[in-house]
Amino acid sequence: MWPFDYFKKKREKEEQERRRAEEQARQQKLAEERIARERERRLEENRRKEQERQAQLKAEREQKESIQPFTFRSNCHQRYENGSPVMGLQECIRTVSIVKNTDGCPGYKLAPGIGYIVKIYNDDLGKPNMSDKPMKVVSKSADKVELRGFPIEAQSPFGWQMVDYSDYGFVVYYKNGQVEKCVMHMYDRNIRLEYMVHTTQLESPASNQTKQVQPKSTEQTETEVFVCEALSNLRSGKDGDETYHPLYKAWRSLQRDPQQLQNIQNEGQFGMGLMIFLSFDTVSDIDDKQQLASISYLFLSRAIEKTPNDVNLYKNRILLMILNHEAFEYTVSSALNPGGGFDIMGMSLNPFKARDAMYKMEFADLLKSPQLLSVDMLGHKYVELNDKISKGFFGPNETNQTIRDTGNDLHKKVTAYLYNKVIVEEDIDF
Predict the structure, then answer these.
(1) Tens digit of pLDDT for each residue in 28-41?
(2) Residue 2 lies in a domain
């Protein structure tokens, strides 16, 4: 029995050792799993804390770079150039607002959520006073928040182009937690517009309709400088990009700051420059064409009022009307129908009235000098209109004399309408 007992005990001992080793391995595995779980728990806790920290930092950053959207109704504003007030206090209603960018901004490639959109609205005319400006907060304190434009792709007649709007800034001033005033900055020209609220009663819009605007300085504005550059290049024989690009810049400049139009020094030259820009035929939008043709007509007409014997001014005005008949017809219709005259689609309710008015205006100008009829296009136009009059196109009792007199009166009426709209009201939206 001895050998049997020996081997039996030996196997039992080996079995015990095996079980002990397995138990040690199991315990070691359990310990390792506990360590792994603890390590994962700590990592997860650290991740959670880091996420909370990042969220806190983001919230603090957003708080630092944010502004509470608001609407501020200003009843007066003051323009400053190079730190000095010009033109006096303008007493008129403007609604200034800052909205959070949630859906981008029309006319710009702007992703939702980036920055804010600054808007200034002309309450007297029921139209925006400027194009919307995307901006970001650049500094913030208890009593002031500063926003600034930034490089962005904007829509132009030549497609999407990158523009740098960092020259535009907007500063909001607070008093006792309420908006006290808003200031629009054009840093590249050292110009600012301060929108405020005064407690004095302002004149009603109707009582301001005949307000006259006085020139603010003898210096050329940016838009006129560009026109002068273009015409100088044209006189030097550079009839191409050297002429076109300064004229394009002049157009964009007056769109950014319509108040420049109140201080044009050489009105005839400025009107001619915009007429030449239209002749390049790169502007396709009818509203843009109407805007350019109307402003060109206004300044040519203003120049004619001051120098009525300048044949070239009449020649330019007639050519402007002939070559931009469709676009300018909308303006003539508005001047003749100040209360409306358009349907819900923006179409004239009486298109023939504006068309015939333009014919009469053209005919009146053609009679200003025999020299005009030596220009082939104008000579043909005179024959065409004279034939219409003789055949009773305008009515059986109309003569060359009555058509001329009516045309002259219409020129005065359209010029007065455009002066009030563009110069007095600073409204260049057509």
Answers:
(1) 888 888 888 888 88
(2) no
Per-residue pLDDT tens over the stretch 168-222: 999 999 988 889 999 999 998 899 999 999 864 433 333 334 344 544 445 788 9
- Computed from CA positions of residues 313, 318, 321, 324, in that sequence, does the dihedral angle turn out positive or negative? negative
Structural domain includes residue 19 = no
Separation CA 297–CA 267 (nearest Å): 10
What is the three-state SS of 85-154? EEEEEECCCEEEEEEECCCCCCCECCCCCCCEEEEEEECCCCEECCCCEEEEEEEECCCEEEEECCEEEE
Task: Identify the H or E element spanning 169.
Answer: strand 168-175
Looking at the structure of the chain, the number of domains it has is 2
Residues 269, 192 share a domain: no
- Which structural domain, as residue segments, surrounds residue 168? 70-198
| Residue 320 and residue 364 in one domain | yes
Token pair recorded at residue 395: 């009515």
The reply to whether 187 and 228 lie within a common domain is no
Domain stops at, among 133, 166, 198? 198
Between CA 279 and CA 186 the distance in angstroms is 30
pLDDT of 273: 95
Query: With 90 as the cut, is the pLDDT of residue 290 above it?
Result: yes
pLDDT-based confidence at 65, cuts 50/70/90? low
